[in-house]
Amino acid sequence: MAPPSIGHLLPDTQAESERFAYSFLPGTLFVALIWLIALLVYLSDVQLTWLGVLPRNSLGLVGIVTGPLIHSGLIHLLSNSFPLVLLSGFILFLHRRVALRVFMFVYVLSGLFTWLIGRDAYHVGASGVVYGLAGFLLFNGMLRRDRAGLAVSLAILFLYGGLFYGLFPAEERISWEGHLGGLLAGMGAALLYGESVERRAEPDESEAAATASPIALQQRHQSSTLGNSPYAMRYTVSTDNAKATYLHPCRLNPKSGMVELGTRHTVIKSDKP
What is the pLDDT of residues 84-140, one digit of tens each? Predict the structure, then answer.
């Protein structure tokens, strides 16, 4: 029996690298949309602040959807762009099964919290979404307590520890309410959709068949064809004095996976010269 090839022993690092790279594509496209809106605002010289969240005002509920797409200036836009790409990419790579639900939950709930607790002013920007995504990664690792999840939590604290200064009133133009609402939304997403980072999805049948060895595939094929149905091998033996045709029953040996002939045979035709 030939030894398994090195491709069956080593993980497909190329496929994993491609999956990691593509995980940042949706966040990049979302940030590109925000930059496009900012460019159109700059070229047309219009003010879209009225599309932000206006707390406890029925018309201000529209800002839950439109507010994260509007920013007050270039510095505000730059401060949110990189964290959006990075955090959404990590969530999609580590939690692909629930990533979309986490993002939508954080997007809506951070705006709703801002609408409930915010000051009487228009709140714009994706800062609440950034805090929500960071909060999900942070609280998910703390709640699940698996090693990989805790490592991600520590990385978030190290990279974005300064974000938590924005949870307290400091500058009038900064919406600390939106930051706090986003963090609470991230904690809620961790409670509802959190999962262990070390979880391994079960491969489907097509993936199992693609990675199976040739011997395993042969045995599976023999099991499906000879396992439950009676089969026989027919052959003819010729000599100078006689010619006879025999019929041997066949069976599959479940231990070896090989086809074996039965001990008894039947002569179905015999001719003598």
Answer: 999 999 999 999 999 999 999 999 999 999 999 999 999 999 999 999 999 999 899
Residue 260, SS3 per DSSP: strand
pLDDT band at residue 262, thresholds of 50, 70 and 90? Answer: low
Query: In 159-177, which positions are buried (b, 16+ CB within 10 angstroms) versus exposed (e)?
Result: ebeebeebeeeeeeebbbb
Q: Quick one: 83 exposed, middle or buried, by C-beta within 10 A (0-12, 13-18, 19+)?
A: buried
For residue 247, give every residue at least 6 positions away whose Cβ sits within 8 Å of its Cβ, in sequence order, or none: 232, 233, 234, 265, 266, 267, 268
- DSSP E strands in the chain: the ranges are 231-238, 243-252, 259-261, 266-271
> What integer best gives the mean pLDDT of the chain?
80
Q: In whole angstroms, give the CA distance from residue 235 to residue 249.
A: 12
List, in order of start, the domains of the chain with CATH numbers. 12-193 (1.20.1540.10), 225-273 (3.30.1300)
